[in-house]
């Protein structure tokens, strides 16, 4: 097992907001909410062991829901960035919602924007007249909640809107906000900023568009909508709101309620007890029911049959199809040509690498390989998105010296998750100790990468420049109009950084950005960071641990591959992309 030592490029106190933001994205994969019991092991969530199995001595059990240590760490990070550069955080919040699928990050940035101090207040002259108005960044938080794009996954779900409030109400988060001056320090209530107002507006929009409200109920958000309405203190204008939610009402103690008390025709979802399989399928098709609506209503003597699953297929998204691969296999449905074609299409559209975990639960070798292909497709899509605006060529330099003993296998596993995402004609790979060796996968796939890396063993000294010279001898050329991104995998314990930098100059390679995938068995050096300083190019680093998270791989690839647009720019191209994101505006 490797020992990770995250030594930053510059001292923490000297790290600017851009460096902190890049660090957050590259090494911030922790999830805030978990739907199962877990363990808190030194601030890290782990799944709780089943049954009476012993837990580690320093671990404590935690209930399902918000994992507070991870929430505090993430919120403190974005709060620190906000304090250093409010404009950067405003653009990043807009970027997080519209350009990423990182649900917890959307919630955390939205929460911050709703309570932070720039709320459009008047700035007055000495005589009291209004000179101008401050920026209203709270409107960005409002816009994040109200943003709607039909059939898009890049907007806040009802659960996410509710979680914004739950996060702000967490005592540790409320304390951070008070310390930042975002709320009344003497108040016992947590600062919620504009959350209640915008949540009410969000609910009102769906009450006025009943098909939208009905769609959310069909998607399984009925109880979430009720919680959201209670927490926001929402007062519906019509009885239809309660009817769609199947929400029986009674008069309040104050006797002031006027809507929903009489004549309610509640929409209830009855169980399917007493219905035959054919009748259940007919009900599903006529009412266009979703999987979530049906699965809890099935009679025990019927269960989920192949016919019922077929009736439910139109309601499943591509992500659902991938997630339900073991069920589809068990029911024998993947042998049916039409269903198999639909499933194959879902494999092609993967945007994360969760399919690698699903593959462990299928029996067929062919299906496992197809799910691995979904992982490759997610990496390909991330690479294509990051390089859409610029011709990017990538060098991967893999340290296999003796100091990597114990860490090389972890490096190889991380590389199998990402290398298949690159077009072979734009990818150049070399391993090195004191001698460089050019590596070429036979095809662009996870299996081909594994085959290419299987013979690498840790031994020998460390000369990063040897890999550069090996690629040059092999005839690798980078077009003048292309941007070269160099990613080193290892512990950067080798020759002096200026010698590494000299190798690029001698071989005629103009580096646009330099990155390090940190994999440390014992001690760590500074060759790559020093080289970046010598070449005056952006430097970023990410721990190989991050590539174990199936959702983190696409995020990391996008951030690492965004080379700066102009030579000599010290800021990451990804940060440039964030700053180009238009600020969201509330409708």
UniProtKB/TrEMBL annotation:
Gene3D superfamilies noted in UniProt: von Willebrand factor, type A domain
What protein is this chain from? Answer: VWFA domain-containing protein
InterPro entries to which the protein is assigned, alphabetical:
VWF_A, vWFA_dom_sf
Species the sequence originates in: Hyalangium minutum
VWFA domain: which residues? 394-491
CDD domains xref list? vWFA
